[in-house]
Specification:
- The chain is mainly β and 186 residues long.
- The chain has a single domain, classed as Porin, CATH 2.40.160.20.
- The protein is built from one helix and twelve strands.
- The strands form two sheets. An eight-stranded antiparallel beta barrel has the order 1-2-3-4-5-6-7-12.
- A hairpin with a 4-residue loop joins strand 2 and strand 3.
- The longest helix is centred in the N-terminal third of the chain and has 10 residues.
- The model has no long low-confidence stretch (mean pLDDT 92).
Length: 186
């Protein structure tokens, strides 16, 4: 569990209020869990799930045919999830209290964004990668910091049951995370 920052650039031409609103959606809580079976001393295969959640309240400008430009208060909740098969490379089987691992997963990345009663969603192929240092508290429990990177891009989204192509305005789902990791060995 930790904190993450989205890496996609903020759109050009936003007002100061809109930039602040978008900034609130670019960082949030990161959580992931994975399970591995070690094939050999250093290599294992498994399944990885990760989730990023952020929310923001703000004011956006909307063009109305009757009133021209109108400012509207909004509240948005975003979630980016990843699930997929993974490989891990570690020194867990070595006789040292200092443990290192690197994992890499390729799978499904999904995005949902809910603003008031409007829900946007989409999915695509994504990649999740982490590197961690852990200290062996016991022979079965390791704890320590972890640095992660998740990447994916949406080219299509759904809104109210209709799918639309994003064209040149693709939604970048990449994020960098810094977390506290715990490993339990069985």
């Amino acid at each position: 569990m930790g904190y993450a920052w989205r890496t996609a650039k903020t759109a050009e031409g936003l007002s100061a209020q809109e930039k602040e609103y978008v900034k609130g959606l670019k960082n949030g809580i990161n959580f992931d869990i994975s399970a591995y079976y070690h094939l050999k001393n250093e290599i294992g295969i498994g399944l990885k799930y990760s989730s990023f959640s952020a929310n923001s309240n703000g004011v956006i400008s909307v063009i109305s045919p009757q009133d021209g430009t109108e400012n509207i208060a909004v509240s948005t909740k975003d979630n980016i999830s990843f699930i997929g098969p993974a490989l891990i490379y570690s020194n867990f089987n070595l006789e040292t209290k200092h443990k290192l691992y690197y994992d890499l997963a390729l799978g499904l990345i999904t995005y949902t964004s809910k603003t008031e009663n409007v829900k946007l969603s989409g999915s695509n192929l994504g990649l999740d990668s982490n590197i961690a240092y852990q200290y062996a508290v016991t022979p079965q429990i390791y704890i320590g910091p972890k640095l992660g990177y998740t990447v994916g891009t949406l080219t299509k989204m759904k809104m109210s049951g209709q799918t639309f192509d994003l064209g040149d305005n693709k939604e970048g789902l990449g994020r960098v995370s810094l977390s506290f990791a715990a490993t339990f060995r069985f």
